[in-house]
Amino acid sequence: MSAEVKVNPMTQPQIEKVTVNIGVGEAGERLKKAESVLENITHHKPVQTISTITNRELGLRKRMPIGCKVTLRGNEAYDFLKKAWETRDNRIADYAFDEQGNLSFGIPDHTLFKDQKYNPDIGIFGMDVCITIEKPGYRIKRRRIQQRKIPHNHKVSKEEAITYISKAFNVEVIE
Predict the structure, then answer these.
(1) Separation CA 136–CA 154 (nearest Å)
(2) What is the pTM of this model?
(3) pLDDT for position 58
(4) Domains along the chain with CATH numbers
(5) 132-164 pLDDT, tens per residue?
(6) In the structure, what pLDDT confidence band is assigned to residue 107 with cuts at 50, 70 and 90?
(7) Which residues contact 27 (CB under 8 A, 6 or more apart)?
């Protein structure tokens, strides 16, 4: 007889969503170009991000579009992350992880993706990639009826997130 150890699937971390963001800082032609870059990379239509405050020094007004973002879930998120890790040579610093197990990193140039070429009409845009890692069952935190808190032992820790990312995507975490 083999003594197989069964792992509870509710305790295994997984990627809930990947958010790709390009902050432009202004509305107009530059924002349209950033939206087209984001749509070419993710194959999804981006939504505009809106400023929440007025800052006269930066020329920002409240409710003015200043960037764009795309949220990816499921297999599309995994496919995008495989391409994103290639731009970073499958390496990430450990300070990119927060205490809740989430991960954020930047890509300085959109032409680092294999299928992207430099276009002088568009220019070069950098982007931020934010990965939300959760365990199954986090719905109780967001549901409308009988909303509950997530128990401490069910939350994703920084160490769990590091081991999950390094095993799932073959990524080297540098300290």
Answers:
(1) 9
(2) 0.88
(3) 80
(4) 11-174 (3.30.1440.10)
(5) 999 999 999 999 999 999 999 999 999 999 999
(6) very high
(7) 64, 65, 66
Report the helix count and the strand count for the chain, using DSSP H and E.
4, 7
Rounded Cα gap, residues 69 and 35, in angstroms: 8
**What is the pLDDT, as a whole number, of residue 158?**
94
> Residue 173: beta bridge partners?
92
Residue 128 token pair? 């931020």
Per-residue tokens: 141: 């935190």
CA dist 84 and 130 (Å) reads 11
Within 8 A by CB and 6+ apart from 112, the residues are: 87
In a 13 Å sphere around the CA of 175, the CA atoms on its Cβ side amount to: 2
Residues 44 and 28: their CA atoms lie apart, in Å, by 20
DSSP of 10-75, one letter per residue?
GGS-EEEEEEEEEE-SS-SHHHHHHHHHHHHHHSS--EEEE--S-BTTTTB-TT-EEEEEEEE-TH
Residue 127 neighbours by CB distance under 10 Å: 24
